[in-house]
Amino acid sequence: QVQLVESGGGLVQAGGSLRLSCAASGGPLSGYTVAWFRQAPGKEREFVAGFSWGTGTPYYAHSVEGRFSIARDNAKNMVYMQMNSLQSEDTAVYYCAASTRLVGYDYWGQGTQVTVSS
Fold first, then answer.
1. What does the pLDDT look like over 36-45, one tens digit per residue?
2. What is the pLDDT of residue 29?
3. Which residue, of 13, 51, 73, 113, has the greatest Cβ tally within 10 A?
4. DSSP letters spanning 35-60
């Protein structure tokens, strides 16, 4: 069973950048599909970016496409998300998630706070 720990969140001005990291332990990350989600205050958790099964092609929520990019390093058991041109609407707790299923995610990190000041 994989455990996930996010890091890299913080306070940044609008237009700035952050890079989030997700460290996996307890199993090889290569056996999982992984994704990033976020939850803003008073809102439901939403998908941000992930990798498709099979091809491993990254795909993104429309709201972040062109600004965020994800990458994974299976040798290091790490997942990253580079976030550029941050906006106040990106303020949220960001979660890393992993799954062995085609639909749904079973394993979640504790989250890392990202706050964008305008």
1. 999 999 999 9
2. 87
3. 51
4. EEEEE-TTS--EEEEEE-TTT--EEE
**Are 45 and 37 spatial neighbours (Cβ–Cβ below 8 Å)?**
yes
How far is the C-alpha of 27 from the C-alpha of 81, rounded, in Å? 21
The C-alpha atoms of residue 45 and residue 27 are separated, in whole angstroms, by 26
Which regions of the chain are under pLDDT 50? none
CB atoms within 10 A of CB 58: 16
DSSP letters of 66-113? Answer: TTEEEEEETTTTEEEEEE-S--GGG-EEEEEEEESSSSS--EE---EE
CB 8 within 8 A of CB 94: no
